Amino acid sequence: MAEFERVLATSIEDWAKGLHEEQLKNRVALAMLQKKKRLKYNVSAPQTSWTVGFKDHELTGYGDMETINFARVVTEKKATIDYRGYVMTDAVSEKERLMNRGKSAIVNIVEDKLDRMKAAWKRRFCGELFIDGDLAANSKRFQGIDTIMNESGTVNGDEIGTNAGTYAGISSVKGTYGGTSTDNSPEYDFWSPVLVNTGYNTQTWATQGLERLRTGIKHTTFGHDDKLDLILLNRGSYIDLLNLVDGSERIIASAKNADLMAMGFGDHVEIDGTPVTWDIDVPTVDEQTAADTVQGYGFNFSAMQILFLNSEIATGRMVFDEDQLAHKFLLSTFGNCKFISPRKFLALKTLA
Asked: Which has more pLDDT, 21 or 92?
């Protein structure tokens, strides 16, 4: 042992130059949003609003020469969200910079600092796409997909969960603005995302996950060209699904999975025409109700945008602080997730 210590004290170690980014992982949701041009930059306004058509005009029968009555019919609502922000910081003292120069610098801690921070920001930000931004603890963070997935009152015999809460100032509760579940009126559930109860009738995802997936896919389909682009499960739930489809698993060459294949996301299966894969950031436990386990979410990217006040995903800068003799690095971004039509999104959770 003494000999080993002497070698360490008197020999130059063989270090490989550069930084090995072991934290790199594929983030399919952000990649798909970029691919489909759903990231919007240089937004400029105190908040963002959009008009939602929620109700049809009534079609009524008419008899010859009958008197026609006219009245104003409100068929639109206004949805509004605010902007939130993030920062990422680092600092390198002038002493550190001077010590970290030349041939002794295995990793130069000043050069390319902002680029490495931007890469880290992208990795960290992907997890924000799944959070509930309306929780008090998340009031400064983006409104991820779980923001629209509020639930209350679901019982074990319900395969489709009961919506609750609001998003962008509009209620997600079915029937709030009229209509019924049987008259096919759009105002009944125009703002209600699909909540699939994976614990339906005391069943489990591991045994009945395929049935619950099919229910979610069909309830979020509003036309042959208006359906989910992707379902993202957490790792454990995806393994359970693979076990269920083992032997019949196949990937069909279709427009839906062409983008995934082109971007290198070949690890997926296609269920009823919808690509299903997994992502490290998909949670396993509901942030709002800890008793609810989460299997995953379904995305229709045509009904979603990520808005940035910045000209890029994150704006970086470096300043030298003479008071502390330190180089300070800052990344910042301001914006929010915008779910243009919440009913086109899916949550798979054990709600009861």
From this structure: 92
